[in-house]
Structures are given as C-alpha cells and as structure tokens.
From TrEMBL:
Species of origin: Ornithinibacillus halophilus
Membrane-crossing residue ranges in chain numbering: 12-30
Pfam families for this protein: PilO
GO biological process: type IV pilus assembly; type IV pilus-dependent motility
Record keywords: Membrane, Transmembrane, Transmembrane helix
InterPro entries attached to this UniProt entry: PilO (IPR007445), Transl_elong_EF1B/ribsomal_bS6 (IPR014717)
Designated name of the protein: Tfp pilus assembly protein PilO
C-alpha cells in the first residue's frame, strides 16, 4: 500500500472543505429560499382554509348582512349622477381638483338567470393636487367608498409644484 503523504492529506482535507462550502452555498441559495417559499405557501393555504371554513359556517343572518353590503356597493340602477357626486365629494375632502371626467361604455355580464345581470360603467379621471399625499388620500377614499369601484389604470406624475393622477375606474350596477 502506498503511504499517505502530507500533500495527499492536504488535498483530501481541501476536497472535504470544498464539498462543505459547496453544500453551504447550495443550502443558502437554493434550499433555504425553497423552504421559505414552502412555509409561505402553507400559510396561504391555512388562510384560504380558514376563510373557506368561515364562509361555510356562516349563518343565514350573516349571509343576509353580506348580501345587504353587496346591495349597497352594487346598486340596482346605473345612476351616473351619484357616481359623479361621489367623485366630487371625495375630491373636496382630499383637497384635489378633478380637471376632467369621461364616461366609457358599459358592459353587461349575464348570469345564469335571465333576470339578473351585472353591468359596469368605466370612468376616466384627470386629477391634480398640491402633493402626493393629497393624491394618496383621493385614492384611499375611492377604495374605501361605499360603491364598488375597481381601479383599472393608474398613472401618477409628480412635479415640483404639483402632483397629477390619471385614473380609470369601473363601477358596477345590477338590473333586476
């Protein structure tokens, strides 16, 4: 048999250390992020399961309250005047100025019943304010509005003296 020399020992120790370093780098760059992603996916699954359980376990009274909330958010008539008044009130409380509002075409989405349809109307707004805080307040007020409004497009521009917002919003109404 051949004898192990000092050089052979150093090479062997070097190979072992290289394997340990490669494993450590692989663990930190591949395995640890995958484990974190798995934990996040499990948390999301738990959240969805708990949401599903709470929906399944709702009583008829709670479902009725939810339907009343939806009825407030999705009125029975188109009522563009109410939408425009709502936009103006939100603008006044936020301290911004609406320079233009245009209404786009509406769409109809038929449900299973011929009596119930969900319709939508799009609005485009040009808004300006003194700073981004006012624009942010305006957007938050739209999102917290009683009426269901979905923000489709959003462009914000900030200059030294003012901030501007270009916004497309879709509102919904039902027809019974």
């Amino acid at each position: 048999m051949t004898k192990w020399t000092k050089t052979t020992n150093y090479i062997f120790i070097g190979i072992i250390l290289s394997v340990v370093v490669i494993y450590g780098i692989s663990y930190l760059t591949i395995l640890k992020p995958l484990q974190e992603e798995l934990v996040k996916a499990e948390e999301q699954a738990d959240l969805f399961e708990s949401s599903y359980e709470s929906i399944i376990n709702q009583t008829d009274d709670e479902i009725g309250e939810d339907l009343e909330n939806v009825t407030v958010q999705v009125p029975n008539a188109k009522s563009p005047d109410n939408v425009l008044i709502n936009f103006q009130k939100i603008a006044q409380t936020s301290g911004v100025l609406i320079s233009s509002i245009t209404s786009g075409g509406g769409t109809m989405a038929d449900e299973d019943d011929d009596d119930n349809t969900l319709n939508s109307t799009s609005y485009s707004l040009e808004v300006s304010g003194d700073n981004l805080e006012q624009i942010s307040n305006f957007l938050n007020a739209i999102l917290n509005s009683e009426r269901l409004m979905i923000v489709e497009n959003l462009n914000i521009y900030q200059a030294d003296e003012y901030a501007a917002l270009s916004l497309s919003v879709t509102t919904y109404y039902s027809s019974f």
